[in-house]
UniProtKB/TrEMBL annotation:
Protein name per UniProt: Molybdopterin-dependent oxidoreductase
Gene3D superfamilies: Oxidoreductase, molybdopterin-binding domain
Domain of life: Bacteria
Taxonomic classification: Bacteria, Bacillati, Actinomycetota, Actinomycetes, Kitasatosporales
Organism annotation: Streptacidiphilus cavernicola
């Protein structure tokens, strides 16, 4: 990312009991999953990649999300935003990562096609998406909270 030796970290913030920053190296300490994916980009056409990394669900739990203590109905009203270094961001609903709902295999990749992402920062992997736009790369922040709490400044 830069010429400094400091590896970029992902800030987990919002409605969490333990807001935290995690480097790609720290993400590798969580259980690792592989996803072979294909998606279509409007500008660069069809893409295929092999990603490896932890589930976003497991990463989030390192920061103790407050939604976890709520009922299923209460959890449903939460969302996550995943932001890249260039400002590109995507929104996920809580139910997309919660195994008691769709619980999809959404990952924070620590490598793409065998290449480590320590310097670039992790990449969001949304295997069921046919469009690549939610594959946010160079992730710098993940925010989680109830819908009403979201604002660009939070
Ligand atoms: N940070 C960031 N991530 C991003 C984008 C972006 O502009 N910024 N573009 C998205 C889009 S539109 C696509 S199609 C994929 C492209 O993935 P590729 O590396 O296979 O081209 O990255 C996604 N991730
Ligand atoms: Mo794209």
């Amino acid at each position: 990312m830069s010429s400094t030796t400091t590896a970029p970290a992902v800030l987990l913030h919002g409605h969490l009991d333990r807001p935290t920053e995690l480097t790609v190296r720290q993400l590798r300490e969580l259980p690792c999953h592989r996803a072979e994916v294909s998606f279509d980009c409007r500008t660069s056409g069809p893409q295929r990649h092999s990603f490896q990394g932890p589930k976003l669900w497991d990463v989030l739990h390192a920061a103790k999300p407050r939604a976890d203590s709520g009922t299923r109905k209460a959890r449903l009203g939460h969302l996550l935003t995943v932001t890249g270094a260039d400002g590109h961001f995507a929104v996920l609903s809580w139910a997309e990562i919660d195994p008691e709902f769709s619980g999809r295999g959404i990952l924070l990749a620590t490598s793409i096609d065998g290449r480590p992402l320590d310097a670039a920062g992790p990449q969001l992997v949304v295997p069921e998406d046919t469009c690549g736009a939610r594959y946010v790369s160079g992730i710098t922040a993940v925010w989680v909270g109830p819908l009403h709490a979201w604002s660009a400044a939070s």
